[in-house]
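# step 3/5: fold
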Amino acid sequence: MAHCPYCGINVKEDELFCVKCGKKLPEDMYNRTHGNKKFNRYWLLPIGVSIVFILSAGIYYFILQSMDVQARTLYEQGEEKALEGDFTEAEKLFQEAVDHKSNFPQAVTSRDFTQIAIQNETLFEQADEELDGGNFQKALNLIKNAENDLNNYNGTAVTTLIDKLTKKRTEINLTQIKDKLDQDPSIDEMKTLLWEADSINDDEAKQITDDIRDQIIDYTFSKANEKLSANQFSDAKKYVDDGLKYAPDSEKLQSLETTIDKEKVAFETEQQERIEQAITTAQEEQELNETDAIEVTSISVDNDKGKATVKGEVKSVATIPINSISIDYALVTKDDDEVLTNDVYVFPDTLYLGEKGKFEFTHYDIEEKGKIKTDVKKIKWYTE
């Protein structure tokens, strides 16, 4: 299309002068179509605005990039300080990082964590004060609160702080256990302390656990032996079974348990034999008491002038008291001819094992003039 080579406006082919600038147009149509088109000055404003915008955007982007780099650098420095345990300095660095870059969630989270860490340092100091004062539960509560504050955080610095809290809790628990041990606890309290010490993963706690367990073993062994010596096997077994709950691998208690079982069997066997022997003895004694409880130790007869006096002595060999003892006897001649029979009671009326009794009876009008003797026919008695 033809245009004015001076102002650049479009012109018609038959026009001689430019309708805008008024200058004469070239007669050669080639110059009208291919000549230099004059730049339209109205384009300068939008072009200038665009250039300024582009330059401003570039500068802003450069500033943002610079601030981002600075924020990242401050953040990394803060991380280093946090790992070193300098949470106060770390908080300042994280805050500066946020100031350089407001949209920096990692820095915000780390700053919040360092604030909690600083608070935890105060809780640490308070826990130490409570520990020194023997207020173990208050000290443990402070440590628990500090741990709860860290539940929403993770990372190396958090892990380090949690490890520190764990060590402090272990220290408090061990100090509390040792304090209780110094107060001469009962055996039941010792058993509770054993479980508390055994739950702590620490070398010192392991040593304390072993010491408490040894004391429980010694106590159990001593008490069980006392019951065993008294043949109280069930009670002895209870002591050992209870002790093995706290020291299941104790060879000392396992061996004693075996000994109790063997002694119980031996005792029961011996008791059974004693019972059987007692039954036999009782039967023998009963037979003796019923059939041969009295032993005649002496008997004599004095026959003079028609009067015969019979005297004698008996001894009790019964295991129980016997009474109403009577002696049935006969007077016989030297040719064993029976003259008469009689029974006489022994005095005293009751005899105990080993005691002696006497009897005496006088017969009158004895016609036998020669020597006569006695023949004991039967002895009768009653048992109580």
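# step 4/5: annotate
The longest helix spans residues 44-84.
# step 5/5: archive (pending)
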